[in-house]
Amino acid sequence: MSRKSAQQSGGGGGGGAAAGRGSLLTPGRVAVVALAVLGLVFIFENTRATKIRLLIPEVTMPLWMALLATAVIGALCGAFFVRRRG
User: Fold this and answer.
1) For 11-36, how does the pLDDT look when each residue is reduced to its tens digit (9 = 90+)?
2) Coil, strand, or helix at residue 4?
3) What's the rounded Cα separation, in Å, for the pair 82 and 72?
4) Which of 16, 68, 74, 30 is nearest to 46 (CA)?
5) pLDDT digit string (tens) for 32-72?
6) For residues 65 and 23, what is the distance between their CA atoms, to the nearest angstrom?
7) Degrees to nearest 5, angle at CA 67 with 61 and 71
8) Are 52 and 61 in contact (CB under 8 A)?
9) H runs (alpha helix) in the chain
10) What angle do CA 83, 84, 85 make, to 5 degrees?
């Protein structure tokens, strides 16, 4: 096999496309996934109803729904600021 055909087929010591992108499991990604799982466990363990005051009205809703809504709003705000910065 010639050197040119080895490079085109992805063989021959270069590691292919994965070598350019790096590892899929980095310590940062593992930490983010672990925190996300812990956050979801915390949210879904708190299932009792609670009263929440939204400026004027007072609503009764499951605590998990309020926690999940707060997490989603926080993630959207974080994504907005990361996008503006980068």
Assistant:
1) 555 554 555 567 888 988 899 899 99
2) helix
3) 15
4) 68
5) 899 999 988 998 898 899 999 988 889 999 999 998 899 89
6) 35
7) 140
8) yes
9) 3-8, 17-21, 27-45, 63-85
10) 90
